[in-house]
Amino acid sequence: MPRVKYATVLRILVIFGLFCVWVQILLSASENGLDRDGEELMNANETSEQVLALVPQELHKYLTVHPRNVSGNATDRVGPKNTSDILRMIEKYNDEQTIYNEDIYGPVQNDTIIIAIQVHTRLTYLRHLIVSLAQARDIDKTLLVFSHDYYDEEINSLVRSIDFTKVMQIFYPYSIQTHPDEFPGLDPNDCPRDAKIDYAKIIKCNNALHPDVHGHYREAKYTQTKHHWWWKANRIFNQLQCTSGHGGMVVFLEEDHYVAEDFIHMLNLLKNTADRSCPQCEILCLGTYLKTYQYHTTSDKQRKKHLTLSYIQQVRAASEERRKKKLDTQTWNFQVYPNLYSNTQKVEITPWHSSMHNMGFAFNRTVWNNIMELQSQFCAYDDYNWDYSLLHLSQNRMRQNKFKVMLCKGPRVFHIGECGFHHKKSNCNASTVISKVQKLLQNAKRFMYPSRVTATVTNGGAKHNKRLVKGNGGWGDARDQELCTNMTKIGRQPRKFNYKNGMINSQTL
Length: 509
Known about the structure:
The protein is about 40% helix and about 15% strand.
């Protein structure tokens, strides 16, 4: 009898153990699903008919997904697989500095608007950004500079198929893709992110003596974004032959942005207004992360009262929806309110703040030269975010006030990136977000191309004026700081960096 009981207990323990293993496998699979790059989830979505219906037929070609890419796997791209081959192609294209369509639209002038677009691997978002750019008035007078940190022939083919303006591609040469097992990628001897400094000293991992301000060690996938932005800006202002005398505006976009058709008109309107009445406004901004946008149609008092009541009712309804958690799966709730867009539209003059004014923002070489005066602070500041590093510079200008921004209250640049670098949603659907932006812009169409703007000066509020005490970390590694610093030393003659034993040596090609 005891033997039977023992067997029963043993059987129960085995079953329980197998059950635990099964649960662990399920949890692991779930975590892996959530941790997969958002672009893989997002790229798997086909463009919906609802989205296509709002895109002119002649632009559907930019949204065509080829059969070989139906899987949407961001790591299964066509093109060279060998790191050495990719590096050779990157060096080739960076050296050539080819401007596509220059024979059609003419050479770059010193006042040409340059639109710098930072690209990773989110192909679906990039397609829709291109579609939005194609519909912008006067886009044929600009230069689009696509800056890539991942070499991919399908992305390259898409970019080079653009036929509505001048296009240039530049390739960040120090990426994780091209340095998978060494700095600036992940070196096998790098310290684990959460290692304690005493343990790091024992195992003698790279940069053991210098964790970041929060006690963590570097993660290449986060440091790359700041490196890429800094390299891209240096490349455009300091290295390209076609920009050697450029004094016009450079607009900074990312692959998951979407522009209104009059964004160039608004940029010129803001610039003219700043030149005339706000010389201290060094930065212009066309985008905002606020989820509510307002439109205004008339100055009639009765109409205003009605619209105000409607506005309050809509706000209350939206709040109730949020309270009941009945929003759609993307938690995306654009409300079209009639209060900010008309023939005279509102702009705000306020201190520049990284989290509010880093989307669709623009400045010229004069501002870049001011940034370059503080380049050592940008590269030494312990924050893996390029925008917070700029905010640090703004708050520490010796002889000048903080950067002032003229902000377009009715945004012309929108963030559609619900999936990707900082978003790991398992139910990402790019079409859901994009269709809402398209409909919003369709409703606002009659309020586009205002003739003038009215400006309101604000101090930005206590939150935005709070001085940064310390950064967000992720930038304590001396190698990151040194690479960042060396990027500013590269002139218009191509140079390359070799990484040996953690040291950076430069040589002229």
